[in-house]
Amino acid sequence: MNIRSKLVILCSTLFLLVSCQEDRFKQGKVLYEFHCASCHMDDGTGLAQLYPPLDNADWLRENKTRLPEIIVHGISDSLVVNGQLYTIPMSPVYGLSQVEVSNITNYVLSAWSNDLGSMGFREVQEHLEDLKIQD
Amino acid sequence: MRNVIYSITLLAFFLFVGCSEKKPSKLPIIGYPKIVNGDTIQHTIPDFSFVNQDSQKVDNQFLSDNIYIADFFFTSCPSICPKVKKQMLRIHDEYKNEDLLKLVSYTLDPKRDNVEILKMYSSNLGVDSDKWHFLTGDKGEIFDLADDYFVVAKEDPEAPGGFDHSGKILLVDKDRHVRAFAEGTDPEDVTEFISEIAVLIDEYKK
Question: Which one of B78, B86, B123 has the shortest CB-CB distance to A47?
Answer without folding.
Answer: B86
